[in-house]
Amino acid sequence: MNLNVDCFIVYTDQLASQKLVDQCRDSSLVNQVYVLASSPVELNNCEVTIVEENGSCSTIRLIAKLLRADFALLALNESAIEIGQGAIERLTQVAEYTDAPMVYADYMELKNGVLSPYPVIDYQPGSLRDDFNFGPVRFFRSEVLKAFRYENYETLKHAGCYALRLRASRMGELVHIPEYLFTKVETDTRASGEKQFDYVKATARERQLEMEQVCTAHLRDIGALLLAPFPETIFSENFETEATVIIPVRNRVKTIRDAVVSVLIQKTSFSFNLIVVDNYSTDGTSDILDEYAAQGKLTHIIPERKDLGIGGCWNEAVFHPACGKFIVQLDSDDLYIDENTLQTIIDKFYEENCAMVVGSYRMTNFNLEEIPPGVIDHREWTDDNGPNNALRINGLGAPRAFYTPILRDIRVPNVSYGEDYALGLTISGKYKIGRVYQPVYLCRRWDDNTDASLDVAKMNVHNLYKDRIRTFELQARIQRNKKLDPGKAWFDEN
Prior knowledge:
Layout: E1 5-10, H1 14-25, E2 30-37, E3 47-50, H2 57-66, E4 71-75, E5 81-83, H3 87-98, E6 102-111, E7 114-118, E8 138-141, H4 142-147, H5 160-169, E9 175-185, H6 192-195, H7 205-222, E10 243-249, H8 256-264, E11 272-278, H9 285-294, E12 299-301, H10 310-318, E13 326-329, E14 335-336, H11 341-352, E15 356-364, E16 370-376, H12 386-389, E17 400-403, H13 404-410, H14 419-428, E18 433-444, H15 456-484
């Protein structure tokens, strides 16, 4: 059987686009090359097609109409790329061997004149975030494009590629080839800590709403959708202390005093205390904590175990006899915005009978001066759909607070990244979560933040973990929905 490929690429500039067209034409498998542009351009050996938005649903449908080959190579990223030696043949070969609806590969990245390998990670059911990195090229079986439907979002300008990928995932396994088949010219030279909040900027609001709509439809189709109203919590157990602030810390001598003081100045109508779990600090942090502990202002815990991450340190405090009815988080880098934070958060528990409360925060530099993007309030969370949208985004906000009996039942994963998100996902699948949209927290960004400037390997580890815990939660929701409606046949869309 002679297989062939149609290539669809986005116009970047005359030289780079013509080079990419020629590289596509070097493969004997290529049937036609289409260049998507916003206005007419002059290129050889291809067909130029005018589109308004590269990633819209209407553009995906246009590609489906133009497609005549067995496979479609989509390079819809606006970065200039080059196709590696034999890349199209390799994509076709793996797609044929695996019968995968979509195939993607590792790539080389050219940034600031330096060429570096950029491995990506395997796709799994929980890889629902719309910013999953497939590299610059996605390779689809034609059946996926032909099966693509608008599903009541035909006006969406940004979510077409996302909807197509989710559609493919419902047709089979998306296959990752761990080989460097392309080169991408990267023009965004910001560090990871600067990029991670792009999705909460006001300018991204329209795009985020579209992605939420598409993800919600996908959750419905696979049987993982949760429907409001979400169960309220009954606060039945008695505690001597109403609220406990927990700070896990290791080597934060520059910031721990500010964090502690921001707790001690809180003004509340209830009793509260502070537990700091010191994970064997060696820089003077322990001396500062001993000072406050000697004054009776905090409980200073040094765990017996030496294999604890941040989550394990949390558990040391959660199960401590001094722990109160509600637990409120504070990172050792950060501080509460004023003396009313605790009162605001605990009031929210009683107002909405929720198992968890998530606040809003202001981004600052080390000197507590506001930096972009300013206030992050995660208003993409809604009472009706927040627990579903939580499976798409990479964070829920800060500070996080919990009803202690529920947290003791779940336990915090013993990791040092994503433990808070894991808790939020698990709780959102079963209980109501309250939101505080006014900033009650200052999130300090400085060079010692754990996510300030991550290399590719560390970002992949972090993303793989969050995708995995999303997979766990997704599977749990599907199982619970099946028990509610055992006659329903999930995953039957073809």
